Structure formats: structure tokens, C-alpha cells
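Hi R.,

As promised, here are both runs. First protein below:
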Amino acid sequence: MILLDTNIILRSKQKHSTHFHGVVSRLLELADEEEELVVCPQVIYEFYVVATRPPNKNGLGLSTINAKNEIDNILETYYMPPEDNRLFYMWRKIIADYNVSGKNAHDARIVAFMIMHGIKKLYTLNLSDFARFNSIIDFV
């Protein structure tokens, strides 16, 4: 399984992005290699925030209806394992063990989800955001 970070999902929806073709090509390669591509609720929340934010605020400017339709498409395309309240305790352990603060706590929640589901690989464009976790996850 490979967890897709929010930036991968976002770039796959932005045809004008310099990353669009590379991201879509890589996703197709991974699918051809029969990798199970996964998202988590945190990625969906983050996607919705950016999708409904105006373009002049670094968003996609989608209406709430269009953003919901995009989320439906994401959930039809990628697998989303369930999460439960144990995730909170794993997240709490990770932020303590890795001394995580500020907005990086969002990324720590993604890592906690990965650990809870035995997901070892992450596809992200923001390697530096996850660098502290490179002993427990691999980057695609």
C-alpha cells in the first residue's frame, strides 16, 4: 500500500500545475504496478480546505458541491481504510516521540494513520515535511 499525500491529490486535479503531468504519470505507473493506492481522512479534509479556498488564496476555488463531487471521485478511485479512536493515541505518541509542533502535527496524523494500517510507503511532493519520519516510512 502507498498512502497519497494531499499535495498529490491536489496536483492530480490541477491541470495548470507544473506537477500535474508528473504526478498523473506516476499514479498511472503505480496503478500499472498493481500498487494499492490509499488515502486517509486527513488527506480528504486537507483537500476540501484547499479545494474550496479561492484561487487568490492558493486554492482551487471550487464550490462546495464541486468539491464534494471531487471527494466522491477520490473515494471511488482510491482505497480509504477506516480509522478509529486509537489513531488519536498513536498521533499523540508520534508528536511526543518526534517532538512535532505547529502545522507539522497534521503530517504526524498522516504518519499515525500509516502506522495503524501497516502502510510503509508515502507518495508526497513535500519530502521535507516528513523527513523526520524517514526511519519508519519510505518515499515513493
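And here is the second one, sequence first, then its C-alpha cells:
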Amino acid sequence: MSFYLSKILWLIINPFNIFIFITIFTIFLHFISFRKLSLIIFLINFIFITFISFFPIGSYLTYNIEKEFHSNIKIPERVDGILILGGATNPLLFKEYDQISLNDSAERLVESVLIIRKFEKAKVIFSGGSGSINRSDLGHSQVAKLFYKNIGVDINKIFFEDKSRNTYENIIYSKNIAKPKKNETWLLITSAFHMRRALLIAEKNNWKLVPYAVDFKNTKEFKLTPNINLLSNLNSFQSGLHEWLGLVAYYLMGRTDKFL
């Protein structure tokens, strides 16, 4: 139930959607003679969208999650298991064109190849089902399986978990498969901005994972200064806000003990 609710809520609170809804609402108010009110709402909406367009607010939100892992990307000498989280592929385009399609989080797969080859005896789990409400066939695992096969990794040594629909299920289902022992060292590979939420879920469920963050979105020396990368700033705001809302929502649902 929470999976479907989260999808619906994001459609409502997505900043782009809110901007469009408010714009339509102000037009409606204008036509029913509430012109002063419509102008006030429109100006507030316009100022907000202008502000997040000229200032990298979204990148700043992401940076504040990523910075914890700037100096925390060392690989332990001994690794018993490797957990790779999905989200680096485009299952729809994979189905459409019958070829591997990666997105801007491709580092999750690329870096994992190096780790898998470095620790040949480690157990490996790739976790990634479909995050689509009405397309359960669009799972990340099927794309990842072909990626690893084509690049020369033995897919028989990888367990592809394909039922999870979100980060919470990634960790829960993977732990049921891994059945980690207390003395085992498990490495978690995911994007830096996504790492905090995954670790907090694992911590709540008594699974100590060693972070190996990849796919950093910002430099280590970040400055919150205005620029004219308007579309980039808007997209970053959307993704940054999404992750922070995810952290807060998981805490409120009791899936984590804290959100930072």
C-alpha cells in the first residue's frame, strides 16, 4: 500500500507539477474575476520557480547527503558479500529496443564490475525489481543480468533479486537472501545521494553494511552561488527534494530510526 501511496503523493508534491497546477489555478481565478488574488499567487509561484532556477538549491540538497561519503569510499581488505542496488538502467527502453539502456547512475553497474572481479569469492546480490505502478515486467534486474553477461562477469555467481519496488524492499529482500552472519563484511554499492537512506534501513534491520558510494553528483568543494544553468538547476531541485522527502517519509513510517 505504501508503495502506491508514495507514487501518488510524489505526483502531487513534485515541484514541476505544483508549478503547473498553480499556474492553471491562477488562470482559473483570473477568469472568475479574482484577478488580484490570481496575480499574487502567480507572482509567488513565479518568484519561487525563478529562485530555484538560478540557484543550485537541488544540488545543495544532494551535496549535504553526499558529503558524508567524500572520504568514505575505501574498500575493506576482506569482503564476504556485495549488495548492488538497482536504478542504473532503463527497463522500458531495454524492452523497446532489446539492448542495454543505462541512465545517469550507470556507475552503480560499472564500479560493481571492478568490485566483483576483485573479490571473486564474495557472495553477490543485485537488487532491483520494477518501480512502475502498472508495469511489473520493467525490472532493473533483467537489464543488469544482460549487462554483466555481455561484459564477461559470471552471472551464475550473482543472485538477481527482482521483486523489490523501492529502497526499503531492496534491503529487506536482499537480507532475506544474504542471511548475513555477524562476522561477515557486506559492501553496499549505490549512488552517493541514495546511500544514506539505504544504510539507515539496513541499520534499522540489524544489517551492518559498508558503504561504497558511487555516482557523485557534486564536487567536494560546493558553493551555493547563482548561475544560468536553469534547466539543470530545476532538474537537480526535483531529484534532491525527492531524496530528502524519501528520508523524512521513511523515518515517519518507522522504516528508519532517524533521517540523517
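A quick note on the second one: Strands lie at 81-85, 123-127, 158-161, 186-191, 209-214. Let me know what you think.

Best,
J.
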